[in-house]
Design brief:
Strand 3 (124-126), helix 7 and strand 4 form a beta-alpha-beta unit. The protein has helices at 9-16, 20-27, 35-48, 54-59, 77-92, 106-118, 134-142, 166-179, 195-210, 225-236, 250-262, 280-284, 296-312; strands at residues 66-71, 96-101, 124-126, 147-150, 160-164, 185-188, 217-219, 244-247, 272-274, 291-293, 320-323, 326-329, 338-341. The chain is elongated, with a radius of gyration of 24 Å. Helix 1 packs across helix 2. It contains 13 helices and 13 strands. Strands 2-1-3-4-5-11 form a 6-stranded parallel beta sheet, with helices on both faces. By secondary structure, it is α/β, with parallel strands linked by helices.
Length: 342
């Protein structure tokens, strides 16, 4: 049996009733073709079973319509939400993401970036691992890699960034606890002090200092559910434990709340607990978690906007975006439910 000949641009053009040049423009994402014609061409592509040779297009310098998305952990629901937001924004723009996790390893991050560059991705959205050095970021820029840092920004590095307004948000969250009468506050999840965590701790310290209160007790526990439980165990062993536990993210708070309950403490009654992120579980747990809504999907969308801008204009001035956060008050601090943007 003779194999069928592969379909070509000419087959698509004939089916759509347009020229080969028009088909080529549509497949390359050109804005020069009318929307109705683009639709007709794409329907023809599907009808005749044509597969666009993206590799050949890349050799011609037209891009691959792919983006590398690197996060430190995918099992944290915050990063799952951020990935969803970025993926949706990329889809609207006609791109697809290649996802990789680094697990806080600079070596693993470097390998992932190398593989993504071998696949000629058009740019990278990166939550840098803790060991990332500014020279490494600069090296990517020198090699023409379009890059947006997300959630963390490597000190003394260059380029675009998208993340939440960490410091202002944590000041407001601390002020909420102070209004409730808390004077001794602990902060959990500080084992790895990246730029975002430094901003969060700075916000807590600024609010306490403004009221003449002691600096927070910073617990160098992992930013995980198990790390939250470890922080709770440490607090319970203290002769004079703090009355409020501020956690670096919601996942840490969930672990802390469970461990505190197991030791007979009432969340929101005997001790206040707060998180950061407002992932879906924050509203569903009992009591509900007081937290900062940092809009991870919005951050993902903003990172995509910055990257597409960088792809279109590689020489544009760097842009840093800090998205506003929202205080969400629930039962874990003993108050009624309410929220407000900061």
């Amino acid at each position: 049996m003779t194999a069928a000949a592969p379909t070509t641009l000419t087959d698509v053009a004939r089916h759509a009733g347009v020229s080969r040049a028009t088909v080529s423009l549509v497949l390359r994402g050109s804005p020069l073709v009318a929307a109705g014609t683009q639709l007709r061409v794409r329907e023809a592509v599907a009808a005749v079973g044509y597969v666009y040779n993206r590799g050949a297009a890349t050799m011609r310098g037209t891009g691959t319509k792919t983006v590398g998305l690197l996060v430190t952990e995918i099992d944290n629901p915050f990063f799952a939400e951020l990935t969803a937001g970025a993926s949706a924004a990329l889809d609207i723009a006609g791109y697809i993401p290649f996802l990789a996790t680094t697990e806080e390893s600079a070596a693993r991050q470097d390998r992932a970036v190398q593989r993504l560059r071998e696949h000629h991705v058009d740019g990278l959205i990166l939550c840098p691992s803790m060991e990332t050095r500014p020279a490494w970021i600069a090296g990517l820029a020198e090699r023409g890699v379009r890059l947006v840092q997300v959630m963390r920004f490597v000190k003394d590095s260059i380029g675009d960034f998208a993340g939440p307004a960490n410091e202002a948000g944590m000041e407001a969250l601390t002020e909420h606890l102070i209004r409730l009468g808390h004077r001794r506050i602990a902060f959990a999840g500080a084992a790895v002090m990246h730029s975002g965590l430094r901003q969060r701790v700075a916000g807590v310290r600024a609010a306490l200092r403004r009221h003449g209160l002691p600096a927070p007790l910073v617990l160098r526990t992992p930013a995980t559910r198990a790390g939250g439980a470890e922080a709770a165990v440490r607090l319970c062993a203290m002769p004079e434990r703090p009355s409020a536990l501020m956690c670096c993210n919601d996942v840490v708070a969930f672990g802390a709340m469970q461990a505190l309950r197991e030791r007979g403490l009432g969340i929101g009654r005997d001790i206040a607990v707060t998180g950061v992120g407002d992932v879906p579980e924050a509203a569903a747990c009992l009591p509900g978690l007081t937290t900062l809504a940092t809009n991870p999907r919005g951050i993902g969308r903003e990172a995509v906007r910055l990257l597409l801008r960088r792809i279109a204009d590689p020489k544009a001035a760097p842009e840093h975006v800090a998205l506003p956060v929202r205080l969400v008050v629930r039962g874990s601090t003993g108050g009624g439910n309410r929220s407000g943007e900061l």
